[in-house]
Amino acid sequence: MKEWQEMLALAKEWAQEAGDYLLERAEGPMDMESKTSAIDLVTEMDVWSETFLKDKIKSFYPDHHIRTEESEDEKGQSPYEWVIDPIDGTVNYARGLPFYCISIGIRYEGNTVIGLVHAPKLNETYEAIKGEGAFLNGKEITVSQTGQLHSAVIGTGFPYDKDRDKDNNLEYINKMIPQVGGIRRMGSAALDLCQVAAGRMDGYWELKLNDWDVEAGLLIVKEAGGQAVVQPEKKGLFILSANSLLFSTLQKIIDR
Ligand code: LIP
User: Fold this and answer.
1) Is 89 in the same domain as 181?
2) Fewest CB atoms less than 10 Å from the CB: which of 4, 187, 203, 221?
3) 86: domain CATH number?
C-alpha cells in the first residue's frame, strides 16, 4: 500500500535523525533515573528521542494514536497507532555498548502493518511492511535454516524484577543450556527479534516485555519467514520466536 510506504519512509527519516543525535550524545555525560529497579533506566536521551518522534508524528498525522515507553498514550481518531520504544536497550546505550535501537511499529485497526528498527551505532536499519518481506539496510533478509537444537544459537533476556520474582527465566535457562548450541543475552528485545529475522540467531524468548519492545521486531521476524507467539500474561508479554524448524521444539521446552 502506497500510504504504508510513505509512512515507513517518514519513520525511517525521523529514526535516522533521532539516531544521529543519540550517537552524538552517547559519549558525553547524561542525566538518568531508575524506574522499577536500579538497572531499569530512563536517560535524558530516551525522553529526548520520544519527544522528537512524537512531535514529528503529531505534525504529520495529528489524528493518529501514539503509544510510547516513557509517557502517556496520545489518543487520536484515526485507525493508525504508532507504538514506539525511543531507545530499546537503554542500559546498553548508557554503558556505551552498541546494541541499542529506536523501535517503531505502526498498527492499522489493531494489526501491525509497519515495523522499523534503527540501530545507530551498528549502522543497521531493519524494516518491514506486512506482506512485503523484511529488509536490513535495503537487502531482503530471511530466518536461518538451522533445524538441530544442538547447533542453534538462541537469544533471551531477564526481567527487571529478577531479584523479587521467582519467575525470572532461570528455570528455562536451566532447561535450555544443556540442549542448545549457545545462548545470547544482548539487551534489546527489538534487536534480538531482528537477529532472528536476519538468520544470525535461530530463536529468541523473553518474559515480561511490553508491546513497545517488540511491536516492530515481531513483524520484521514474521516477514523474514519466522514464527512467533505473543502471550499476554499478568506481568507483561511472553514472547517466543524462531525459524519454523525450531519453533515447536522451543515451545515444548518453554511450556507456559
Ligand atoms: C529492555 C529490553 C531488554 C529486556 C528488558 C527491557 P528498554 O528494554 O529490550 O531486552 O531484557 O527487560 O525491556 O528498557 O531498554 O527499553
Assistant:
1) no
2) 4
3) 3.30.540.10
Among residues 91, 112, 141, the one where a domain terminates is 141
* 61 plus 153 within the same structural domain: no
Q: Is the dihedral of CA 40, 84, 227, 203 positive or negative?
A: negative
pLDDT digits 0-9 by tens, 122-176: 999 999 999 999 999 999 999 999 999 999 999 999 999 999 999 999 999 999 9
**Locus of grid cell 507483561:** 236
- Catalytic residue, from 66, 87, 154, 220: name it: 87
Sheet holding 182-184, edge to edge: 182-184, 153-155, 203-209, 236-242, 227-233
Ligand 1 atom closest to the Cα of residue 186 is 10
Specify whether 87 is catalytic. yes
Are 18 and 105 within one domain? Answer: yes
Q: Residue 213 C-alpha to ligand 1 middle, in angstroms?
A: 7
In this prediction the ipTM stands at 0.90
Q: What is the distance in A from the centroid of ligand 1 to the CA of 44?
A: 17
